[in-house]
Amino acid sequence: WDEYTATVIKDSANVTFEEINLLNVYARPLVTRLINENFFKIFRLNLYKECPFWSNSQGFCMHKSCAVDTIDDWKNLPDIWQPETLGRIEGLMHDPPTTNGSCIATGIKSTKDYCEIDEINDETVYVNLVENPERFTGYGGDQSFQIWQSIYNENCFNLGSEQCLEKNFFYRLVSGMHTSISTHLTNEYLDLKTKEYGPDLRQFMARVGDFPDRLENLYMNYILVAKALIKLEQAGVLDRLRFCDGDFQSQESQLKSSLKKLVEPFCELGDTSRCLFNENTLFQSDGAGQLKEEFRERFVNVSRVMDCVHCDRCRLWGKVQITGYGTALKILFELDNHDSLSEDFQISKIELIALVNTFDRLSKSVASINNFKQLYDKAMAAE
Ligand code: FAD
């Protein structure tokens, strides 16, 4: 850990992990309160969409016999601990919880999207995110490995040099999301003795703690999503949002001021020279327009890969986070801060919900990483 901290903090021009840890102590209770609000906790998605990239019979399955990586002996465990049950979503709602669920937008639809958002149809379901936490589900083995592979493979750009900044950024973004998912599943790992979920240091070290680059990518994502929230506020988009939905109209000003309060201490990160992530260095070279378009298309493909995830709860949280990152990219790369274009920028209710929940996922990951660090120090001291 000490070696890792030293590597990360060596460039004093950057925001340090320590600074982010401190900012997160401030942000954690605020974002926790936000995601427990009715507006932010109900997520809309299609859980039954076919995988667009390969046939469902091609060996990707969500059966205990496929989930062989982390718990070896599924067959001796009771039904309640089988991956099909652990990965299930509780309390699915088929009817929209409100009449005008998607009515939150500004301007005309002119913005390019960085992810595919499920349209509302007969298969649409509504899920309470608070009642279906992201945690260990037993999903694993060849099928989840292949899904991660296909996501990383989207990083094969046709344009630009092999080692271009944008390609590196794409990889780090996906890797940071992967790190966050691994942090949550090891922080809420199923203990077969106590039958309860809790932090498993050994699993965390094997998947995250022993890989400084993975941790660095997660912190990069934290800054990326925080900067998107800041920009939403500073470009005036937050002020222009209208919660047309009757149930939430009365809460509009309270939810907006909570969001503003959340980003307040992060605003000094607007000085991009001090950031772990600076969006202004990307898409600047010759042919940048084409490269950005290819980047966008490839990220949309990553969002479509989520329909290939067979574990329902993993698919749910995969979709929430990919929509959150897609929204953050759209804000950072398509929203113009300085001219009237920002008037036309559109953000939907589902995108705002995903953005805030993705920030919560990263914030909880950072808090869990700090807790794992303490567990690690204690374990070392005891040796
Ligand atoms: P995996 O995590 O499957 O990794 C595969 C390979 O990728 C590794 O061998 C390594 O080479 C590389 N790798 C690993 N981490 C990183 C990183 N951060 N950056 C770069 N490369 C890396 N399981 C749950 O229990 N709960 C969930 O909620 C859940 N959600 C998921 C959501 C999605 C979209 C997907 C695809 C999977 C999800 N899973 C979930 C499964 C989980 O991510 C793992 O795939 C599974 O636990 C098996 O882990 P593993 O140790 O075999 O390696």
> What's the Cα radius of gyration?
20 Å
pLDDT under 50 segments (min length 5)?
3-12, 64-69
Give me the count of strands: 4
Order of helices and strands: HHHEHEHHEEHHHHHHHHH
Q: How much helix, percentage-wise, in residues?
A: 40-55%
If you average the pLDDT, what whole number results?
84
Q: What structural class is derived from the secondary structure elements?
A: mainly alpha
Largest sheet: 2 strands, antiparallel
**Distance, first to last CA:** 16 Å
Present as ligands are:
flavin-adenine dinucleotide
Query: What's the arrangement of strands in the largest beta sheet?
Result: 1-2
User: How many helices in DSSP terms?
Assistant: 15
Keywords: Disulfide bond, Electron transport, Endoplasmic reticulum, FAD, Flavoprotein, Glycoprotein, Membrane, Oxidoreductase, Redox-active center, Signal, Transport
GO cellular component, one term: endoplasmic reticulum membrane
GO molecular function: FAD binding; protein-disulfide reductase activity; thiol oxidase activity
Subcellular location: Endoplasmic reticulum membrane
